[in-house]
Specification:
InterPro entries: Sig_transdc_resp-reg_C-effctor, Tscrpt_reg_LuxR_C, WH-like_DNA-bd_sf. Residues 204-267 form the HTH luxR-type domain. One of its GO terms (biological process) is regulation of DNA-templated transcription. With 267 residues, this protein is an alpha+beta fold. The chain folds into two domains: 56-188, 2-Layer Sandwich (Beta-Lactamase); 206-266, Orthogonal Bundle (Arc Repressor Mutant, subunit A), CATH 1.10.10.10. The protein is built from eleven helices and five strands; from the N terminus they run ααββααβααββααααα. The chain has a five-stranded antiparallel β-sheet, with helices on both faces. Strand 4 and strand 5 form a beta hairpin.
Length: 267
Amino acid sequence: MDGIGDGIGGKPEAGAAEGRARRFRLWHRDIAQAAHAIGKPEFPLCLETALRQLVSFQMMNGFAYSHDGVASDLCSERVVGTRAMIVDRYLAGSYVLDPFFDALHRFSADTLLVMRRIAPDRFAETEYFRQHYGATGIVDEIGFILKLRHVDAILSLSRMGAERPFSARDVRTLEDAAPLIRFLAERHWADHRKPGAARTVAAASLSNPALTRRENEIVSLILKGHSSLSIAAVLDLSPNTVKVHRRQIYAKLRISSQAELFHLFLG
């Protein structure tokens, strides 16, 4: 978004100012339309249109999470790409490895979630990352936490393909707009509920009866993308103790890679 309008009307600075003023007017027009669309099917598209006046992105989607650990589709009608990759596989259980899902329990509702800030240190090396981000081409993601009557939810904006990650300026812009975005979204989706029948794998499924409680905790952190050092810090263990546990886990489960671990728990 930076530099739109540069060179128009003489000096680049003047052109940039005109571009910002135009986007400011369009933002107010479009966000007003979104407000009028609350409770109507067109609300998600109206909100998406308004947000595009602030920052560029390729996809807006959302998921809701009940307090007993069941995920449901909040807003994925316009998902780009293969639905099975982005939505069905996610709802089938892999959402328990999503840093945004973890963030619901770690951050206050007014926090704007930026994936690269909150993801574990080895997140990009995980099987979840390969299957979800690698396969769909998502390069960066920002999320708004929504507190609804029956569930919590996250509405996210993604950049994909050859696009650059969100800049610091993009993040500041969305942080400034976040209170209004949350206000409108929480009213539109206020009565969203989890599916009547449990269609998904509950968070508690990240466990195996062959492992001890501590070993299951370590498995969960490994699958989420934590290194041995990070696991040690989270569980207040020494890095060497974590490595010993890891070897024991792999031996008990008769596996030798994280990909096998992923498929054993979520395959």
